[in-house]
Design brief:
The protein is 47% helix and 19% strand. The protein is an alpha/beta fold.
């Protein structure tokens, strides 16, 4: 059985940010959350505009980890918990409900494979207060090559997905 915990962060929306990697909760407990994140393996990230591309990429990452021997209890998908509020201004209706649609597609895909226990919802206020811009920049500088995780230049949604990965590692018992 492989060591570590696979985490996928999802910032759902018209443009969805995805970030993933394998991290050690034990290292987090011995040193710090940020050292555990800096020593992550199998890191990847991207921004996706196509809803089908989101579920396809998540499925691909999970399948790779399953081939390596990860059990469903060693993988967590951390999704930003979108809250519909009254009087949202600007944008279009598509902008407003895209996070709900993407989250539903992810839940549907996981239900098909009976992996619904993998999902954890985190409020953006929690992930943004934990993984501030400064923390993401420091994390990005400590990856090899620099900028591979944490602070990804020009990709706001990917950065938000990395925030969710940090929040997810922080939540694992």
């Amino acid at each position: 059985m492989p060591t570590g915990h696979g985490l996928i962060g999802v910032d759902p929306g018209v443009t969805t940010g995805l970030a993933w990697g394998v991290f050690s909760p034990r290292l987090r407990d011995r040193t710090s959350l940020w050292k555990a994140l800096a020593r992550g393996r199998q890191l990847g990230c991207e921004q996706i505009v196509e809803p089908y591309g989101v579920t396809s990429q998540i499925h691909s990452v999970i399948a790779e980890w399953m081939i390596q021997g990860f059990g469903s209890d060693q993988i967590t998908i951390v999704i930003e918990d979108f809250q519909v509020r009254q009087n949202l201004s600007g944008g279009t209706g598509r902008d407003k409900l895209a996070p709900v649609y993407i989250t539903g597609r992810i839940d549907e895909m996981l239900a098909i494979y009976q992996y619904t226990e993998m999902t954890s919802l985190v409020m953006s206020s929690v992930s943004k207060s934990l993984a501030t811009d400064q923390r993401l920049k420091l994390w990005g500088q400590s990856t090899s090559p620099p900028g591979r995780a944490g602070w990804v230049k020009g990709k706001r949604h990917t950065r938000d997905a990395w925030r969710l990965v940090a929040a997810g590692l922080n939540l694992i018992p």
